[in-house]
Cytochrome partial (Lentinula edodes), 370 residues
Amino acid sequence: MIGRREPSLPPGPPTIPLLGNLNIFPTEYAHYKFTDWAKEYGDIYSLKIGPGTVVVITSMEAIRELMEKRSGSTVDCPPNYMADNITGGLNMVLARYGSKWQILWKTAHAILTPHAVTAHLPIQIAESTQVMYDLLKAPELFYTHIRHYSNLVMMSLLYGKRSPRYETHEALLFFESQHLWELALEPGAHPPVDVLPFLRYVPRRWAPWKALCDKTREAQRKLYFGLLDECMKRVQRGKENGCYMEEVIKHQDEFGLDRELSGYLGGVMIEGVSDTTSSFLQSLILLLTAFPNVQRKAHKEMDRVVGDQRVPTLDDVPHLPYIQAIIKEACISTTGCQEVNSYRGYVIPEGSTIFVNTYICDDPKIFNPD
């Protein structure tokens, strides 16, 4: 029966016919509910979403085994109607495994070499110094300072274009498109089109998620291809400034790229760093405020290793283990299972979605803020 949990699957919440667990799937802050379920059903459990299967893992042991040791069979992304409808399947983070995915990742690896990263380190140091000054002068505006910093660094590195103010056109356009993108991808916020494919044929006037896809696609393409075209014109005029996307443009044929792939490659790299970096740093500030004892320990370690007469460098990182532990805390990632896996006597079916709930800081056996 559709919606019923097969006996070979890991345990999980009770199901109902047809829907499975769709009726109780969280529509926001999913990591909280996933963590609660882990306490009840264990660090590996399953959810039935109609005929589909979701397997949630919430332990370092299971993550290491399934995501690292068996990464060859869990590398794929689950189907995502919203993402594919917006990007045409060209967002390399959410694209299904295939030739275009391979081209995008191969190109990203080719240009993001250790040598290239080192060459651009002065930009990162300069902008880090600027954001520290901004935080010191106006700490109440930390949210805006961090967003500006993360976007500014990536715009400079990728396209050689600095946004001197948060209100710069490209910066505002990015955060507008990113907000729409997050709305489109939020788990549970829209009907489960991937599980119930007939929803794709619902007339547009009764399907607000389709209008959201169109609006998001328009905003993304306006930014991504506007920046790409500007960069291409600069290359054609011989006015290169050494940014990453100039290398992509000059070696498009070698990498197997066309204009569409190049535009989305640059756009996803802006998205992949600008938003994740700002979200992380904003959360870090809030967490350090909420847990002053952690802040004091981190401050003490920084004073011991770096002192108060200079800023930290990459050479200091190995000597800052407590701060490294703080930085490595995370939330949820999603992947897909390309082939049948067996783990602890359970079966993870081919085509199932795997949620890696790395919100394990709630587990006192792993992380204790005291």
Residues 80-290 form a domain with the Cytochrome p450 fold (CATH 1.10.630.10).
